[in-house]
Amino acid sequence: MSRPHDGHRPFFPFGNPFRMILPKGSYLSPKLLALLNSFEENLAERLKKLKPKDRGEVLSLSWLKLAIESLCETHSDIKILITELQFPVSDWDEKWMDVYLDNSVKLLDICIAFSSELSRLNQGQVLLQCILHALDASIAFPSSEQLVQARSSLADWMELISSRNPKLEKCCAILHGIAGSLYLPKAKNSAKGKVLMRAMYGIKVETIFVCSVFMAAFSGSVKPLMDLHVPDEFFWAEAFTDLQADVNGESKMLFSKGNVTILKELEAVEMCSKTLCTMIDEGLGSAEARTLQNFILDFGKRTERLSQGLDLLSKEVEGFFQISLTGRDALLCNLRVCGTDSDLNQGNNGVVRGAL
Q1: Residue 267 contacts residue 261 (beta carbons within 8 Å)
Q2: Half-sphere exposure of 314 toward its Cβ, with a 13 Å CA cutoff?
Q3: pLDDT tens-digit profile of 2-33?
Q4: CA 136, CA 146: separation in Å to the nearest integer?
């Protein structure tokens, strides 16, 4: 899952102080440089940990869970960075503010769509439990009535997973809108602003990448995937490029094979369901009793893995939604405070943004 490189990147144990996208003549104090390097080093390490060890990890619920956990940690890091920078919201450029607020709304919409899809897939667990109940592995051989019930539930479940969630259809355009704001104007006359903009670039790249993979996995389409180019000047560029190449490359290969169900755990249950449908349709005799019992046991294990994976991922997506929401609320609260203070000092010429 690795790819060759043209050369070796120089190693800096505490980050590379020369890898800065800043205008000539710009200066960062040792404190600001340390804060920025720490943020970028942490981001690079997270991206390296997300790199799949083998092809089977790509587009699995377990990998998606790790990806959203990583994203939560990076979003938490940006809050810590802003606090340590002691960079008040009142000093933010209006362009940064407008883009941030716009993107935060879009990100919340995407989280809602993801939660909706996970909820929809979780509904299918009821049908899977009905199948397992009808085909109890402890029974030597199910009755014809039980087989009919199981076959009906199998058809309902397969119809559910083959359908598409309309909320996901809008997400692709929303995500491309966020990608369109990836490259912001450079911060002027503010060393802290330059550090913040560089860190914000990193968090947006990771957010776009992770969300695009989520959408591809949920929608069964390659369209959401984006190949983002990160300049070499960023300390985490190589780690991101490697990760993106592996995950997007493997995902596109799966789609090229005509796979509709891409999520690994979901695909495992679907394959078992199709085989079970064939077995029931073709008729089962008493001679196949042992084979059927073993098959039902395997089906139950796959169903359990799917159920656990969906539950864990749902919790992580909810956590990411809360992080995004609280971050936006905190910013708006600070803006109102800034606006109120300004109004008190300047009368009707106060900062309008306080009304947000």
Answers
A1: yes
A2: 15
A3: 444 443 333 333 333 334 445 444 568 899 99
A4: 9
Ramachandran angles phi, psi of 13, nearest 5°: -60, -25
CA atoms within 13 A on the CB side of 155: 9
Q: Where are the domains of the chain?
A: 30-324
Q: What is the end-to-end Cα distance of the chain in Å, rounded? A: 47
Q: Which residues pair with 13 in a beta bridge?
A: 15
Task: Extract the residue ranges of the chain whose pLDDT is less than 50.
Answer: 1-21, 23-25, 342-356
CA 277 to centroid of chain Cα atoms: 34
The span from the CA of 285 to the CA of 280, in Å, is: 10
Residue range 331-345, pLDDT digits in tens: 777 666 555 554 434
Length of the chain, please? 356
The structure tokens listed for 43 are 């981001």
Q: For helices 61-85 and 264-282, give the axis angle rounded to 10 degrees.
A: 160
pLDDT computed for residue 3 by the predictor: 43
Tokens (6 digits) for 267: 């695909």
Quote the pLDDT of residue 75: 92
The amino acid at 136: D
Exposure class string for 99-113: b at 16+ Cβ within 10 A, else e? bbbebbebbeebbeb
For 118-140, b/e burial (b = at least 16 CB within 10 A) is bebbeebbebbebbbebbeeeee
